[in-house]
Amino acid sequence: MTAQRHCLALDLKDDPALIAEYEALHRQIWPQISQHLLDNGVLDMQIWRLGTRLFMVMDTACGFDPEAFARAAASDPHVQAWEALMWRFQQPTPWTARHQKWTPMAQIFSLHAPHTGATGEARDL
């Protein structure tokens, strides 16, 4: 089994000062946060921004369990403090379920995967 890739979306509040502060915090995240990620199976994480929309790419180790990851985060006071701070800047997307933050995105294309139609069946281009 290989590493897994998770792609998630979240929005920022539409306030240039808050966005600048959010980006500054992410240029030097707390060391406890990066250690928590590494200790819990995250191999790499990138966050991209377009306007107020955030896009996270998270590569995780083989066997990564999102529920175990969430439990570990919930029991870590540093992670909880970071998440509370981040919520000052963040807001759910219009498609986000109630009480959820980062929302998983559906992959619709991969250059290296078979091309599929709407039914998911392989087709020629």
Automatic annotation (TrEMBL):
> Mind telling me which Pfam families this protein's record contains?
rhaM
Please indicate which superkingdom the organism of origin belongs to: Bacteria
Q: Which InterPro entries match?
A: Carb_Metab_Mutarotase, Dimeric_a/b-barrel, Rham/fucose_mutarotase
What is the name of this protein?
L-rhamnose mutarotase
From which source organism is this entry?
Pseudomonas lundensis
